[in-house]
Amino acid sequence: MAIGLDLETDSIKAADISGKDKSLDNYKIIHLDLGEDLKTRLKNGLKKMFSAHLANKRLVNIGVGGPSVVVRYPTLPKMPREELAGAMKFELEQHIPFKKDEVEYDFQVLEEFSPDSKTMKIALAAVKKELIEEKIKTISEAGLKISTIDTNSTALINAFTNSNPAGKGEAAALINIGSEISNINVLKGKEPFLSRDIQFGRLTIIDLLAKDKNDCSLNEANNLLQTEGQREEILELARETLESLINEIRLSFSYYERQFGETISKIYLSGGITALLQSFFQEHLGVPVLSWNPTLNLKVNTNLKDIEADTGKLAVAIGLALCE
Fold first, then answer.
1. Which domains does the chain have, with CATH numbers?
2. What pLDDT was estimated at residue 240?
3. Contact 124, 71 (CB under 8 A)
4. Which of 35, 36, 140, 187 is the most buried (most CB within 10 A)?
5. Handedness of CA 50, 54, 57, 61 (dihedral sign)
6. What CA–CA distance (Å, rounded) separates 158 from 299?
7. From start to end of 32-102, where are the E strands?
8. Which residues contact 263 (CB under 8 A, 6 or more apart)?
């Protein structure tokens, strides 16, 4: 199986999963130097990752997210596969806010979630070509080969449904806070209903900290973000920005509730600043907010002694490694 490679602007995470028993053989997290330009830091991070830690691995699955990525879940009348390809071009125009010639797109029939024998539920993803080309260039320049390009939404859902923390029939939100993008998914049991990316991440707060601390470096601000004793100060500093994020999450919840007549019962939170935001989210959204472990139902290598502290950061990388 290919390495699941989660490329972010402040870190690179890799998960190496093998076999039918889904054995997590290895994982690595590389923190990037925020003082370097993005191209340089990714180049140096990948070199370090694959020369020192995963030297014999070259095949990777990567994810894409952000404003250049759209995921939708339309329901269509049942039709043969050859007709479906043509129908999806029409669905693109209905659901995707980009011109068709600007994107690469793919779709999958979600057989187990189709409402009845006459209809079928589809997962439709469209990604701007320039983003895909940029990712391919970064990976190929590092001497790696891409097996699969998926969306971070799909990867997150893969990891979540594999670990299976949600109750059957429970309407839950799955939120991952990345470096620059927060990913929101709404699922009922294992069935996806909504996937959305929002421009907010760890670097949003790091930038605020750097400016507040008399223009300290981004690396120094990142260290402050990881300091437990700074929690209340950081939340107060970022309150306005966090409240904007909360409003965007509420909009997503309201859309789901209007469309499907159900309320979100729980939020499952992942990402590098889960501990910072968990109680803040719960207080402002009025819904239980839980952390979750994407390594559940994986056979974890016993040599990975420190993984417990890192599990919340690995959701996307693990989900990408699970992509078939």
1. 167-291 (3.30.420.40)
2. 96
3. yes
4. 187
5. negative
6. 16
7. 59-64, 69-72, 75-77
8. 171, 253, 257
Rounded Cα–Cα distance for residues 44 and 197 (Å): 27
**Token pair recorded at residue 258:** 């209007």
Give per-residue pLDDT as tens, 57-73.
889 999 999 999 999 99
- Chain segment 140-156, per-residue pLDDT in tens: 999 999 999 999 999 99
Cα–Cα distance for residue pair 172/167, rounded to 1 Å: 9
Low-confidence ranges of the chain (pLDDT < 70): 53, 165-167
For the chain, what is the largest distance between any 2 Cα atoms, rounded to a whole number of angstroms?
Answer: 63
Other Cβ atoms closer than 10 A to 24: 20
User: Which residues share a beta bridge with 61?
Assistant: 4, 148
Residue 24 near residue 15 (C-beta atoms within 8 A): yes
pTM of the full structure: 0.94
d(CA 316, CA 176): 8
Both tokens of 310, joined, read: 């890192």
CA distances from 209 to 32, 145, 232, 270, 298 (A): 18, 37, 13, 22, 37
∠24-30-31 over CA atoms, to 5°?
140
Pairing of the two strands 119-128 and 69-72: antiparallel
Question: Which pLDDT does position 53 carry in this prediction?
Answer: 66
